[in-house]
Amino acid sequence: MASTSKVQIETPGVIERVGSGAQHGLARIRRTLDHLLGGELSDDQRVSLTRVEESVVALQSLMSDVLDLSAVDEGKLVPASTTFNIADTLREAVRTVRPLADGRGLELSVVGLRTLPSALIGDPGRLRQIVQHLLKNAIEATATGVVSLTTAVAADQESGTRIRFEVWDTGTGIDESDLERIFQPFERSLAGGADGAGLGLTVADRLVTVLGGALQVQSRPDTGSVFSFELDFVKPEAAPEPPTIKTGPAWIVVISDVVGPNDRVTTVLERLGHAVTVHASPELASASLGLTEADPPDVLVLAPGSRPMDVAARVARDPLLTRVPTIIVSPDGLRGEGARCEALGIDAYLAQPLSPVDLAETITLLRSRPRRGGSLVTRHLLRERRGSLKILLVDGSPTRRASIMRQLEPLGHRVEVAPTGSIGLAEVTKGGFDAVVIDDEVGELDCLALVRAIRRWETAAASRLTIVATTQLGNALDERRYRAAGFDACMPRSSAIERLHAALRTSVPTR
Q1: Strand ranges in 313-430 using DSSP code E only, listed in sequence order
Q2: Helix spans in 104-155 (H)
Q3: Model confidence over 412-467: pLDDT tens digits?
Q4: Considering the entire predicted model, what is its pTM?
Q5: What sign for the dihedral angle of Cα 147, 152, 155, 159?
Q6: Cβ contacts of 502 within 8 Å, gap of 6 or more
Q7: C-alpha closest to that of 205 among 185, 233, 175, 177
Q8: Per the omega criterion (within 30 degrees of 0), is the bond before 304 cis?
Q9: Cα dihedral 432, 438, 443, 446 in deg (nearest 10)
């Protein structure tokens, strides 16, 4: 039973304007916190800043929910139409809420993903958002037991597929007299105290309706609840032969107007080995390219200090610049910018804080496909493509552990830590990891002895982990010595995250 209740917006546009301003401010606070947490901190300082960051993230989520409700009520929310892998999208939704389930000691299961088509056309972002809200609600309503996401093909035709989604839990359940009200905003107590401010179920209900479905619920007190909905997706036409992937350094033109959050983009590109030309505006970039007879650049990166959509619109109006695959790096990452990029024909949308790995993979992806071909590249799409690794980080330094975790986890990986080699060995032998990163300072068990012990355990367990060493020097002598002991790669501690990530990706995700 889908609810039709609405949040009344007395003054159209006011919530959107106020919310956008708040999002700008919260985004800047997160960038500052990210910078602080990447530095040298005491344990107490790190805990305090992490709590502040969690509060900011919660406020951003709440603001996003309010803006989504406002957009739905004003008829401004239009579903995207993108080709995507639905199983990967659902895995990404589960990944984001798994820490909540782990923190409550709950089993979080996923059933039926392998039965889904590999490619469908729809709105992956909104589907991910719906499933995340329903899973969060189920987790918060469940003290012990199981929360499960179950999917199945409900109907399959030549032109499209209908998918059924169910999220069920063994939680407190909902009284029958309250079922009519649970989708109303701020009714958090009716769903077992879930949803934070009480908007999660409301947002899920509205988004399901916008996508053409109806959110249903079945529940009994002290038994649990089942939330379900069905959505129709279009099947894409047969894909053409894939183009040749361009490799090697690229020529990248960066448009960056002022010093600001995006002023490090050029440094990252140069570190990745690309040839970079910088212009202060789209007009100057177009004029410069028009004076040369060379082939056009491989990629155009828009990195303005403010008003990124205005810069994107100016690029979209220039016939010379529209020939070049384009990435925009938003300084704040505000709601609605991705949809605006799709409307303007921008190929990729990334936001600060920018991951060098995301930027590198985006450039590779754009160089391998036709101009304006395929889905808008976002950090979510990149995570879905690369999958998720479960990584054990063995390092005696709390600061180094925190720094590496903060760089790997936004890429979609799950990272656990061990402060000593003996603890690391005990964790590895429990099973479940895809890769291990070992520093050469791991306490009483030498890192070379540790990797040899892991390789011996693998022989009996019939498994194979990717194991990467980080050392103070990471020179050629270290490389030979560490590889001989059983490491797959060896690199200096000072290596950029993209190098470590590339070494870890030699393993195949199993989750």
Answers
A1: 326-330, 348-351, 390-394, 414-418
A2: 124-140
A3: 888 999 999 999 999 999 988 999 999 988 877 788 999 999 999 988 877 789 99
A4: 0.66
A5: positive
A6: none
A7: 185
A8: no
A9: 100
The one-letter amino acid code at 180 reads E
Model pLDDT for residues 349-391, shown as the tens digit of each residue = 998 888 888 999 999 889 887 766 667 898 888 887 777 788 9
Query: What's the pLDDT score for residue 95?
Result: 83
Q: State residue 367 phi and psi, 5-degree precision.
A: -75, -10
- How many Cα atoms within 13 Å fall on the side-chain side of residue 190? 20
- Please report which residue ranges of 234-303 form alpha helices under DSSP H: 265-271, 282-290
Residues with Cβ within 8 Å of residue 4, at least 6 apart in sequence: none
Take residue 87 and report the two structure tokens written for it: 């199983």
CA-to-CA distance for 497 and 393, rounded, in angstroms?
14
Maximum distance among all alpha carbons in the chain?
A: 73
Of 208, 505, 203, nearest to 382 (Cα)? Answer: 505
Instruction: Return the residue matching tokens 């979609």.
Output: 412
φ and ψ of 304, to 5 deg: -75, 155
Q: How many whole angstroms separate alpha carbon 130 and alpha carbon 128?
A: 6
In this prediction, residues 32-51 reach a mean pLDDT of 77
Tokens of 115: 């039965």
